[in-house]
Amino acid sequence: MLRFIQYYGKFQTAKGNVTSLPSWSKPLLFVAAIPGIILVLLSILLFMVSILALLLLTVPVYQLVRVLSGMGKTTPAEVASPIEAPRRHIDVTIVE
Question: Would you report the helix, strand and coil content of the chain in percent, each value rounded to 5?
Fold first, then answer.
């Protein structure tokens, strides 16, 4: 918790330093930060692409394993065990 407070204090100090800069220097600072912003956005995009690639590779294998193991039932009626009784609809009226 102490480290969080220290980091928060450093962030507030940096924020105060940026806000105290003259108005003409803030656009310059933003232009200098553009490559870093682009790299952060690209890394997020690459992370999402890697997750998608992982799913594209594993989902077909998962489905194949389910079919081969006999657990590849798709409808809820097939998934329910034969011991379980079918559900019935009950209408309820509350009288005060």
Answer: 70, 0, 30
